[in-house]
Amino acid sequence: MKRLLLLLLLLVASTQIEASQLESYGNPRFGFFAHYPANLFTYQRESDNGDGITLANKSKGLKVLFYGSLAVINDNIRDEYRSSIGYIQDDREKEITYKVLKRDWYVLSGYDYGKGKIFYQKTFMVDGDKFITYYIEYPTRDKKRYNKLIKTIDRNFKP
Q1: Which domains does the chain have, with CATH numbers?
Q2: Distance between CA atoms of 96 and 128, rounded to whole angstroms?
Q3: What is the share, in percent, of the chain residues with pLDDT greater than 90?
Q4: CA end-to-end distance (rounded Å), the chain
């Protein structure tokens, strides 16, 4: 019984810490909001054209991008999905191991063997004329740790 109570206390405490450590980024150009654990990143840079932000921690090999783009070449989610798959497959050192296409979003994930990293990309089609994406890249050896990061970002991402 004591173990169960201790486990519940630790779970509640870790959830509160996670929530209190989230930093917010709002993009006025594309109208999306992202929330991420600020303590993981040592570098951040907003793009010059206002389409998004890059967060990184070079010592941990972690990089996250949040960005928007206009649906100019690909005007629907299916075409954007196919285009992204083609772009990744053109890189011989990358392999897609997971992919999902839904009505207004898709996910592509896999390995970048050249960098020894895992990548995860989730893209949404919003208002029929723009794509909102977050892209995460992290070392393969840290898969369990950063899978939790993906869940945290996904729960708190508002395209």
Answers
A1: 24-155 (3.40.1000.10)
A2: 26
A3: 84
A4: 43
